[in-house]
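Incident review: delayed structure delivery

Summary: a single-chain prediction request sat in the queue longer than the usual turnaround. Root cause was a stuck worker, restarted by the on-call engineer. No data loss occurred. The affected request and its eventual output are reproduced below so the record is complete for anyone auditing the incident later.

Affected input:
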Amino acid sequence: MIRHSLAILAVGAFPAFAQGTPDATLDRAVAAWRDVRTIRANIEQTVVNPLTGRSVVSRGEVQQRRPGRFAVRFTDPAGDVIVADGSTLWLYLPSTTPGQVIKSRLGEGPGSSVDLTEQFLAQPREKYDVVDAGAETVDGRPTHALRLTPKPGRKMPFVRAKVWVDDRDGLVRQFESTDQSGITRKVKLSSVRVNAGVSDAAFTFTIPKGAKVVQQ
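Output delivered after worker restart:
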């Protein structure tokens, strides 16, 4: 999972789905995810570190064009940027590491994809044990939640996760994941536009003057 983990989630004007089993909920989510080509949305992420007791909330705008192009520009903390241009991932986070840009190649394997919904919905039955986690309302929309636990022997970027699947459109509205150290990230999107126009310029990163580039 990339830093500032963000969901690539979506909203659409689709008829309501009938409620069903966890398997049916998962099938709807997988089918809806396959139809997503671009997304533009506001995001909110809450990171909780149980060791320090600290909770940090960040907000911004996300744009994505599948495959391989992804951008988040934060308004809080202002100036933080994450951009994937199709081959390279750029992280510029002056709120925590001023004057430094982290550059890495997009690769394969767990946690390497910039399509954050993919980690939950690509071949989920091969990777996770999936159980029902109840019905909840997320940002005014009814959802059914699923709890995902990696199967034994599967190396994943989290030890458990919860995803909220919209009852109407079958798309993931929110997710929460917990890593090996116990850090929890909860991500929610709002004002989502699916398969709408996104800016080519959003997926281009310009190294700020004077910044040091660190290759990873």
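Verification: The chain has one domain: 22-215.
Action items: add queue-age alerting; document worker restart procedure.
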